[in-house]
Amino acid sequence: MPEPEFIAGFHAIGKERYHHLHRFHLLMHEGKLTHGQLQAWALNRYYYQSRIPMKDAAILARSDDPSFRMAWRKRLIDHDGDGTKPGGIEKWLKLVEATGLPRMQAVRGEGILPATRFAVEAYVHFVSTRTHLEAVASSLTELFSRDLISLRVDRLLQHYPWLSGGLEYFSGRLTQAPEDSEFALNWVVKHARTREEQDSAHDALRAKCDILWAQLDALYYAYVNPGWPPPGAFQPSDL
Amino acid sequence: MPEPEFIAGFHAIGKERYHHLHRFHLLMHEGKLTHGQLQAWALNRYYYQSRIPMKDAAILARSDDPSFRMAWRKRLIDHDGDGTKPGGIEKWLKLVEATGLPRMQAVRGEGILPATRFAVEAYVHFVSTRTHLEAVASSLTELFSRDLISLRVDRLLQHYPWLSGGLEYFSGRLTQAPEDSEFALNWVVKHARTREEQDSAHDALRAKCDILWAQLDALYYAYVNPGWPPPGAFQPSDL
Questions:
Q1: ipTM of this predicted complex?
Q2: Is B209 on the interface with A (CB under 8 A)?
């Protein structure tokens, strides 16, 4: 497949399957989520955030190329911090606190949906067991995250101003994600040498979209419609 | 914990969390599922069935005790067959065909819900990475499956008589599951020597209940209410 077509393929997949299309996000951006639904979102999504550096370490661990590892290392710093500036995980805990939930509930994963756990584990497992190319290609949802995040910050401030102290995570991602996806896309283009490898990279992005989508499906169904959290899951006081 | 209390703990967990309580099963048993919903169930559940021998092989692989391995080996035969009599997987394919879907769609996993895949992978991963005790204890949902299966066969025949050619899987399980759970329970009781080990065995059963429940949640939400299959998933013709 010629390079422009290969790259366009990623964008076509995002247009169809990235979770900016998910009803949970549409409701969020229309200001139609309740306080409890936003709590459930922040709590469950924290589990995803907390596994991102483990996922990135698994990808790092697969590379015998110091320059790849050095570039990828940036992601660990972005999420775990550098000991003085807080990383993405700490910032997401601020968001959890801004929703009124105790940070330790998120840290302990108390009441998160089993489906959240399964989808996130599937992601870590995917990057650990598939090819290095597929592992890197699965990160390419970051090609689409900038637009979603900038819309989100705008709408969260508009509709849920009480969240404003918890949005620092997103401002960081506005610059981090495009840097990361640019590196990853160049690397994938360079290393997908056969048609099969190119197809496997597209499939990896589809798989990652499924992982993000399944997390919002679980939230939507447990907390919006029909609104039936499974046994043991977080029960918002307004549900 | 005294032995009777330890054993009663498993039964209490089943009473609260086993998927006989799930709304999808309640609808099934009331005859309220559509043809397409039963297709989606058979198709998705096939993925679970197909991974059972891989799960059991992972448990087998953890044991250095030939008598344990010999007892557990029975499960591989039950599901994979012995080359003359069909095993559970082949019987489940008959059920898929009885719903009108091609067996190859199930074998290929075409259109199964990503959430099904994630939950089932989480099960295989659980038994591969947790302690041998937890791995065995997670099988104890079989303590409860006999009652569910005998009710199910009864109600499927009553409400969906066109499925009658596909129910052989369940008749086999009526005797296999109680044999298996009796062995597993005795083994767990004998090998959980500390309070912590006993608690971990209870937690393992809870985790397994979550895995079963999440599969039905995904089916319910994608195909019953609200009825939104994620991108790429099976679309019944009557949805």
A1: 0.82
A2: yes
